[in-house]
Amino acid sequence: MLKGVSACILRCGISTFRSRLCKHDGLVKVHPSVSQAVAENRPVVALESTIITHGMPYPHNLSTAQEVEAIVRAEGAIPATVAVIQGRLHVGLSSEELDHLARSKTSLKISRRDLPYAISKGLSGGTTVSGTMIAAHKAGIHVFVTGGVGGVHRDGENSLDISADLTELGRTPIAVVSAGVKSILDIGRTLEFLETQGVCVATYGPSKNFPAFFSPQSGFSSPYHVCNAEEAAELIAGSLSLGLQSGILLAVPIPEQHAATGQQMEEAIQIAVAEASVKGITGRDVTPFILQKVNELTEGKSLHANIALIHNNAKVGSQIACALSKLMNGDKLRHPAPSCQKYASDSHSNIVVIGGINVDFIAKGKTEKLLFGQTNPGSVCQSFGGVGRNIADSLSRLGHKALFISAIGTDSHSEAVLNHCKHMNTNGVARLQEQRTATYCAVITESGELSLGLGDMDIHQCITEQYVSQFETQLSSAFLVCLDGNIPVSTINYVCSIAQKHGMNVWYEPTDSDKACKPFLSEAWKSLSYTSPNLAELCTMNRTLGLPTPDVLPNSLEEVLSCALALSRPLLEHLHCLVVTLGAQGVLVCGEHGDTGSVNLQPRKHNKRGRLCAVHYPSLHVDTEETVNVSGAGDSLAGGIMAGILQGGDTNSCVRMGLLAARLSLASPHPISPVLTFDTVDPSKARDQPWPEPSFMWMD
User: Fold this and answer.
1) What are the Cα distances from residue 150, in Å, to 284, 371, 559, 621, 665?
2) Domain covering 2-329: architecture
3) Annotated catalytic sites, by residue?
4) In the chain, N or C terminus with fewer CB closer than 10 Å?
5) pTM over cut 0.85
6) What homologous superfamily does CATH list for 338-463?
7) Closest alpha carbon to 346 in 407, 428, 406
């Protein structure tokens, strides 16, 4: 039972970070390799950076940092070196960022107290144990490797000089793997203080001897010991399962072959402490001074020992992280991870969908007219929707495994959602603690028309720019990115800025009239390639740009087409194509006249624009009695057209794929029909389908 509960709690740790990002957008940058590993429950090891900025001289600091990361990778884990760079808390550094920190002579030493100032001033620096613990916890990382932790300084009972590392261990649920407490500190009082803070301390190995950084023995004992990585992982999992919100200190003795003699180290330490006192060195400057002095007095032996113990800690910590990952994934069937499907092609996915995911409840009346204020006869069924989810679902069924980026809660609905979406690539779906999975209730008439809809969609605001930016590599390399109107404006603007920089195509699905305006509140809309509004949403887009719109929408087909053409024309100054959905009156596709004699749906290969035209496709006939619901027809249409574009189809083929997908949706209790496949919507195989003749119109 412990393993199952532990796995669930571990995943909650991941979702806690993502929930916080909703409130602190832009302050934390997680490297894509780290975020992806966390999402897939693969082992990740956090690493501090004060050892780079303040612990060793250049170039030893850089080579040690690189070697430690290499050791972590060799053991099968992902390294996540933490630092503050220009006011942003980075979890995972590039090689260029590592080199910059190693060479910098102005980097701050950043603990918990220093984070607000460094961020507000846009400064850079190395994070201490406490600063790194905060970042690791926010990123959903549970194992952190360092050299040694801070503690109660000698004469600390009078000076009250106590490291923030100790209080951080008492309030942040991170397992810190270290070589014990630095030998320049009061080890006995440090262990007493950790007990007061409720920190579980255990020596890694066969005995309880508590190590003293350079020496495998300090003369003090840990309360407990763990013999191997598996026992350490069980200890961490047990602590997280109880929700204690305190850390664990795993003390790893330095290998005997690298341990300097205790007497030699102690003599050097006493000399260094005395010199620091004479020179008036106090506070945060004491430790680096003493370590440097000890290195000089021991002719470099302490530096070599320091590097050796850090290498050893990295190896042990990585093994523990791997064991913890294995423990967490061992209960996967009962507690699915945010990304229970792993796809080798994630980083090469040619389409990304960002949007909402809902649990839908469809209440269908048995009469054409529903009477409010009383119970109506009908049926109620549960399905799974959300515009983004529907489009990603349809693309997956049509042979294109889109990377789907969204957010769900950690409630009972989330389990059902992930199980239903197991055929999709849900590696981008965050599970957020203390959040409700979006739910939608649609009340429809006997003919399938929507009478009333109620939605609990607050969680969609957590699909933030900060969270989505973790997938920037996938976004910038995608052929097409689809956004639905449920996500925040800042996220839409961010994706549009990436599109402008990298030239990928963006499809905006507005979802409703109120949300259609989002990209048009700024210049972001000019980076869109496609959008698929209905007539009311198209009016909203024009109105947001300050363009004239009709007071009343027309009804007759001729007037509807004329209105849609007029409203589409100004948007095509920048957009490549508009797909205006007209319900029972079909689809109007507007854009540039192509070589095939119709609208060119395929992305332009040059900036030169040809004449603008439009093609109206009447809807396919659907018997009223065959209509089950209309909630996913538009999304199926969009998904079918996108799939056609991805396959390089001409406009007729793309639109007909969409129309066939929409018809399947209308006849299904689910927004996306379970029988949707490429074969069921392949226009070349639907020869018995009486295709209504499309009508062609020039726009200028």
Assistant:
1) 11, 70, 76, 74, 62
2) 3-Layer(aba) Sandwich (3.40)
3) 48, 182
4) N
5) no
6) Ribokinase (3.40.1190.20)
7) 428
